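User: Okay, second chain of the day. Same drill as before: sequence in, structure tokens out.
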Amino acid sequence: MSIETKAADIREEFSWLEDWEARYAHLIDLGKANPPLAPEERSEATRVRGCASQVWMVTDLKDGRLIVRAESDAVIVSGLIALLIRLYSGEAPADILKFDAPALLDEIGVSGALTAQRSNGLASMLARIKADAAACV
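Assistant: Same drill. Structure tokens below.
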């Protein structure tokens, strides 16, 4: 499934959520379903800088596709991570670099409701995924 197809699915999913409270609850559910990293993967080397909460991200290139796994100690951030993983994991690095996730997050009504700290953290997570993808191209 392409990033565009995944994005369309996410748009459809969030279109049913009428307000920020419903989106917030959905993000929490997504975060709860996100599988945790192994304890040894939660290290200073995998920590995402720029996030107010603790976020760890591990990426691997497998068969020409970037596999993204991540975890946070904050429930909303975990939901944001789950969205980013759903969107980007398993995609070719060049496709990751082309896709505009901030525009998608605006479209589904997530970005505008985030605090400044969470917005900065989200930008840091996106930057990390893009940097890891760029290193693979």
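The chain has a mean pLDDT of 93.

User: Thanks, on to the next one.
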